[in-house]
Write a structure and sequence with these properties.
Elements: H1 2-30, H2 40-53, H3 74-93, H4 102-116, H5 118-130, H6 135-144, H7 146-149, H8 157-219, H9 221-226, H10 235-290, H11 294-308, H12 312-341, H13 345-357, H14 363-376, H15 380-388, H16 391-395, H17 404-414, H18 418-430, H19 440-454, H20 469-481, H21 487-507, H22 513-526, E1 531-536, E2 556-560, H23 566-582, E3 587-594, H24 598-602, E4 610-615, H25 627-631, H26 637-642, E5 646-651
Parallel strand pairs: 1-2, 1-3
Antiparallel strand pairs: 3-5, 4-5
């Protein structure tokens, strides 16, 4: 008993700790993590929406080209346009000298993602309860995961996909709860209805008997008067009979009221179930248009839902209402994407209507109009699938072995919990369970099916598996909650792992680039009469939208040399510097590159005045720090730390 009390207190502490961790996570959004995880963080969402809403210079990635876009514009706009419009409005009011800046844009656009990441927390809790896993440990794992702190608060389409998967899990369990609740209410309702029916029959029988008695009393009234021995019914008996009648009527009325309340509850539960089914259809379509890989993550949960939807009627309703919700959202998303990408769509529709109004109506006209309108529609998932089915296209992004997801990316996401995850998976697959229906086999299938399916495609990144995070963590929690010896060690290693990964992905990896852009934006805005030339070398692509440049202004130029050879960098810088010398107007040339590559540039600029400053920390795999040289004592520790910086080289 004492051990149970200790465990209960420990779990309550875990619950409080989860809440504290979520609060701290929001603080790291309001005081933003400076790191830059992947170019898609900006170029598949923020760069496009900020360019449109704020009307600033931006780079439109190939995924958003008008001829054959592979990304729906709906979700970036739904999540990012409200905070950006809000910033734009405040900026227009000039409230307290407020000005839109790179940092404000980053904070405003990460906040919506931080809020929707809580859906993943809720889904983890529901999964744990459904599969009889300790929900306190499960939610603690989620709230302390570096994935929730970094990836899920960034503007990735994978983050949206993860939240839609979490949302569909919540909807599925809600639907199953509605079915079970409706079944119980139906049983109670039928029992009450039979009781009311029986009471009505008893009342009718009683009334009939009462009428017959009154008739008999009326016929024998004269004989009864002559017979002095007959005992007349007293007034008390008559009063008691009236009270009994009133009591029966009251009970019957109460039964009818309870029956009406039950019927109302039954109708409400039924409507809730139908709404839930339609929402599932809506989310399936939304997830598919956001990233077609959503179907890989939602397939097993949907099968689970159909399997446990008891009765043929419920399964038919699942199909009908889910199909209706999917159809509605499909039409809306296609319409919005078409309006955004195809600027000539309304002209096409107008032409068709004009021809119709002029009386040129025929079957041939209908066929031509239909083909014209159909060819004008933008269906981004179809373009996405066509692109990714071509291995040559994937090769441009990097090809990986098919085992990368299972042997590299999965351990990278959950670290030390990989072992408990594998143990639980083996146990579910090979050990017989008394409760086959709700066994962990379903949870294992939800986790492994998308991993196996996505492993077929040769381009594999860790963020592609983020939607399965709740399933991974609940499976690991199943093992951890079932052991006593070694639990604290696992929790400690898990904490150290996530602290390290939060530092790397939140505060170290390409971490100086966004702050540098913010400072550069202030420099450009403070000297509008100068010509500014910025060159980026061996960094991630700089998001142009964070510089908040008016497209009509021609006083700034950005060159992203990526990982070009050193001679290309030197030639580009010397050419730009020479142009600045020839130009009599003010000219500011800045080069942004990792500290490890700075010496390669400055030695070729001896005939120019060069000023070098550093912004730290900044870790770049394109120009990694000299770890081996430091290990072999070729450089000092201070020199090694300087390698973890981004240099800003100003050439005059």
């Amino acid at each position: 008993m004492a051990l149970e009390n200790i465990d209960y207190v420990r779990f309550i502490i875990m619950n409080k700790l989860s809440t504290i961790l979520i609060f701290i996570n929001f603080i790291t959004v309001l005081f933003p993590q400076p790191s830059y995880i992947h170019p898609d963080e900006f170029f598949q969402s923020l760069e496009i929406v900020a360019g449109d809403v704020l009307n600033v210079t931006h780079v439109r990635a190939w995924e958003f080209n008008e001829s054959s876009p592979v990304r729906s514009i709906v979700f970036p706009y739904v999540l990012l346009s409200p905070p950006l419009y809000f910033l734009k409005w405040i900026n227009s009011t000039g409230l307290s000298g407020f000005r839109v800046s790179a940092v404000k844009i980053v904070i405003a656009t990460r906040l919506p993602f931080a809020f929707i990441s809580l859906v993943g927390y809720s889904a983890t809790e529901r999964l744990a309860r459904a599969f009889e896993v300790n929900q306190y440990i499960s939610t603690l794992f989620y709230s302390s995961s570096y994935v929730a702190w970094t990836y899920l608060t960034r503007t990735f389409s994978n983050s949206v996909e993860a939240m839609l998967v979490a949302f569909i899990l919540i909807l599925i369990f809600t639907c199953l709860d509605c079915i079970e609740h409706r079944r119980k209410l139906t049983l109670i309702y039928e029992k009450e209805r039979k009781g009311v029916h029986q009471s009505h029959n008893e009342t009718k029988t009683y009334e009939r008997q009462k009428e017959e008695t009154q008739k008999n009393d009326a016929k024998g009234s004269e004989l009864n008067r002559k017979d002095e021995s007959v005992e007349f019914i007293s007034e008390d008996d008559i009063s008691q009979s009236a009270e009994d009648d009133e009591l029966k009527n009251c009970k019957l009325k109460e039964q009818e009221e309870r029956l009406a309340v039950l019927k109302t509850k039954l109708n409400v539960t039924t409507h809730k179930q139908h709404i839930c089914q339609m929402l599932i259809g809506l989310v399936i379509t939304a997830g598919f248009f956001n990233r077609p890989t959503f179907l890989a993550f939602s397939f097993v949960p949907i099968i689970f839902w159909f399997y446990f939807s008891q009765g043929f009627e419920n399964k038919i309703k699942n199909i009908l209402f889910t199909g209706l919700g999917a159809l509605m959202s499909c039409v809306i998303i296609i319409a919005l994407d078409t309006i955004y990408y195809n600027v000539h769509f309304f002209n096409t529709v107008k032409t068709s209507f004009d021809l119709l109004l002029t009386g040129q109506f025929s079957l041939n006209f209908l066929m031509i109009s239909f083909e014209l309108l159909a060819s004008s529609l933008i269906i981004t998932p179809w373009n996405f699938l066509k692109y990714n089915m071509n291995t040559a296209n994937l090769a441009e992004h990097g090809l990986h072995p098919h085992y990368t997801h299972s042997l590299v990316n999965l351990p990278l996401l959950i670290g030390p919990l990989s072992i408990p995850f594998v143990v639980t998976g083996i146990s579910a697959l090979f050990v017989r369970h008394p409760h086959k229906n709700y066994g962990l086999l379903w949870l294992v299938s939800m986790s492994l099916f998308p991993v196996c399916l996505l492993s077929v495609f040769p381009h594999q990144e860790p963020r592609f598996l983020i939607p399965t995070l709740p399933m991974f963590l609940v499976m690991a929690a199943k093992y951890v909650s079932g052991i006593t010896y070694g639990r604290n060690m696992i929790l400690t290693v898990w904490a150290v792992f996530n602290l390290a990964m939060v530092f790397i992905y939140g505060y170290l990896h390409q971490a100086a680039l966004v702050p540098v852009l913010s400072n550069y934006q202030l420099s450009v805005s403070s000297s509008p009469d100068s010509y500014h030339h910025a060159i980026f070398y061996k960094t991630y692509p700089p998001p142009r939208s964070l510089l908040i440049i008016d497209p009509t202004k021609q006083n700034i130029r950005l060159d992203d040399l990526a990982g070009a050879p050193t001679n290309v960098l030197v030639e580009t810088v010397r050419s730009a510097a020479a142009l600045c010398r020839e130009n009599k107007s003010k000219c500011q040339l800045s080069v942004f590159l990792p500290s490890t590559a700075t010496a390669l540039l400055t030695k070729h600029l001896s005939d120019y005045h060069v000023m070098v400053s550093s912004v730290c920390p900044h870790f770049s795999m394109e120009a990694p720090p000299r770890l081996r040289s430091w290990w072999e004592n070729e450089i000092s520790f201070n020199e090694f730390l300087l390698d973890l910086c981004l240099s800003v080289v100003k050439v005059q």
